[in-house]
Design brief:
The complex is a heterodimer of chains A (about 110) and B (about 110). With about 110 residues, chain A is mainly beta. Chain A contains no helices and eleven strands. Chain A starts with a strand and ends with a strand. The model of chain A has no long low-confidence stretch (mean pLDDT about 95). Classes of the chains: A mainly beta (about 110), B mainly beta (about 110).
């Protein structure tokens, strides 16, 4: 049981390049989330998917798109990277429903945009 | 939307002393309050959480208290140890199918031996 996995671990992009961050979970969770973490600012929600087939904007969605490919996978796409998107990106998942609210985080992707 | 403020941003304590981190939230509809610990270069991990129908919850050396009227909640760590050194984040969540979290800005706790 690998939990939440993310690829790649590290990435360097030039301004204007595009890339997709991959996230997968093997816990049969319904809800998945993408956060970015910047120094001194905690984690901020970019997009989330309450269940397979749905996606919604979070606090900081500009410059990003997401795809909930199936129940296991939730990808984050940067169409035209900007230096302001330099950050650590975390994916998380939650089983869903009203009994357990804990979110489980992946190991993160450290992205640098030059 | 929800706004969560966390204080202090840094906290140093002597080993064996207690540490307290405080958070306030703005949305009175928030009803779930987790605390995450993040070690350097690692992912955040849940250490304790509380729901709005409970005023206090304890797990060994860690406790969380919630004051719904004042809209603030606190993390208490007793008998601190060097391995407690990390960044701690509070968060708040309202009801809804996704239960998205709004995080505080974090507290760097350093336990001095």
């Amino acid at each position: 049981n690998a939990g939440v996995t993310q690829t790649p671990k590290f990435q360097v992009l030039k301004t204007g390049q595009s890339m997709t961050l991959q996230c997968a979970q093997d816990m049969n969770h319904n809800s998945m989330y993408w956060y970015r973490q910047d120094p001194g600012m905690g984690l901020r929600l970019i997009y989330y998917s309450a269940s397979e087939g749905t996606t919604d904007k979070g606090e900081v969605p500009n410059g990003y798109n997401v795809s909930r490919l199936n129940k296991r996978e939730f990808s984050l796409r940067l169409e035209s990277a900007a230096p302001s998107q330099t950050s650590v990106y975390f994916c998380a998942s939650r089983i869903g429903g009203s009994s357990n609210y804990e979110q489980y985080f992946g190991p993160g992707t450290r992205l640098t945009v030059t | 939307g929800e706004n969560v403020e966390q204080h202090p941003s840094t906290l140093s304590v002597q080993e064996g002393d207690s540490a307290v981190i405080k958070c306030t939230y703005s949305d009175s509809a928030s009803n779930y309050f987790p605390w995450y610990k993040q070690e350097l270069g690692k992912r955040p991990q849940l250490i304790i959480d509380i729901r709005s129908n409970v005023g206090e919850k304890k797990d060994q050396r860690i406790a969380v208290t919630l004051n719904k009227t004042a809209k603030h909640f606190s993390l208490h760590i007793t008998e601190t140890q060097p391995e407690d050194s990390a960044v701690y984040f509070c968060a708040a969540s309202t009801s809804g199918s996704a239960r998205q979290l709004t995080f505080g800005s974090g507290t760097q706790l350093t336990v001095l031996p």
